[in-house]
Amino acid sequence: MITFEDVVKVYPGGATAVDHLSLELPTGKMTVLVGPSGCGKTTSLRMINRMVTPTSGRVLIDGRDVAGQDEALLRRGIGYVIQHAGLFPHRTVLDNVATVPLLLGETRRTARAKALELLERVGLSAGFAKRYPAQLSGGQQQRVGVARALAADPPIMLMDEPFSAVDPVVRAQLHAEFLRLQQDLGKTIAMVTHDIDEAIKLGDHVAVFRAGGHLAQFATPRDLLAHPADDFVADFVGRDRGLRSLSFDTASDLPVKPVDGLELDEAGRPLGWPGPDGLRETGGVFTKEDSLRVVTDLAIRSPVGIAVRVGPDGAADGLVSHHDIADYLASRRS
Ligand SMILES: Nc1ncnc2c1ncn2[C@@H]1O[C@H](COP(=O)(O)OP(=O)(O)OP(=O)(O)O)[C@@H](O)[C@H]1O
């Protein structure tokens, strides 16, 4: 666990960058620090690995003040990923990743073998190993940056806007890969972003900062969306952010119930819901490829609160109510 205990940072001649921050980042989870530009996110992140020293207050890792720890030893346990990856331009991809194991005393052979394994983990085949960073796309460079940060197998990872330099499509791929990786690795991660959608998608917890280095709210994404602490957070999160966040995921894993009570034609296609005044339209149907937002919208608009799923032939093959969707969303968070 990483603990900020009443931490203040005032840069020389500057305003207060971080103002009485108290925060706990749980072990094995990803905490995202989010907020508008200049609100102290990066400063807070860098106090964890002692790149920045607090003016007052303490930062502790598993109860031990980082201030008293040997800097080199401390940083060995803390991977660091930044925007544009920050790779060594004159070293190959393989050597970029192998640098840390080499520094830690591994033989060149073992370090390189480890680097290759890590590159594969982040989705880069051996073919990339001999290239130089400039010969990679932005997304590939970010992957190398993540592999390099993982090379010492640090229990903690600090990530400063790691995905913001790539286009939205690549970013979405990196998000998906990163979530898979984290599921396997269970690192304690602190990530900075200014993008609330990214924070909600990736974070187990989200810390929303406001100008002047104040922590406005620390909550799970679900709580943040459901119960913003004040007008600032509500505004920052946006009124429809809850629904919008559902656009990120498809309904492929959403459990459905057997089709029951729905009027069908001979081919099994939905005709409508029987009611006292005849059939009521379903208001549309969804497939496994549709987003959870589409399904939720259908369930809400449905005259009976139930969305109808169809297969490739248009035949109804499952039903889901908005209660089922809420249960499913809750189970994904736990
Ligand atoms: N080395 C420094 N010297 C003086 N002031 C600094 C220094 N680094 C940051 N600041 C100031 O501290 C405040 C917080 O900066 P910080 O980089 O932590 O914010 P941030 O939320 O990460 O911003 P951004 O999203 O723009 O990166 C800003 O007002 C910034 O100008």
TrEMBL record:
GO terms of molecular function: ATP binding
SMART domains cross-referenced by the UniProt entry: AAA (SM00382)
Keywords for this protein: ATP-binding, Nucleotide-binding, Transport
Family annotation (SUPFAM superfamilies): P-loop containing nucleoside triphosphate hydrolases
Boundaries of every ABC transporter domain copy: 2-237
Domain of life of the organism encoding this protein: Bacteria
InterPro entries the record matches: AAA+_ATPase (IPR003593), ABC_transporter-like_ATP-bd (IPR003439), ABC_transporter-like_CS (IPR017871), P-loop_NTPase (IPR027417)
Coiled coil: none
Name of a matching Pfam family: ABC_tran
Gene3D superfamilies the record matches: P-loop containing nucleotide triphosphate hydrolases
Entry's family note: Belongs to the ABC transporter superfamily.
The name this protein goes by in its record: ATP-binding cassette domain-containing protein
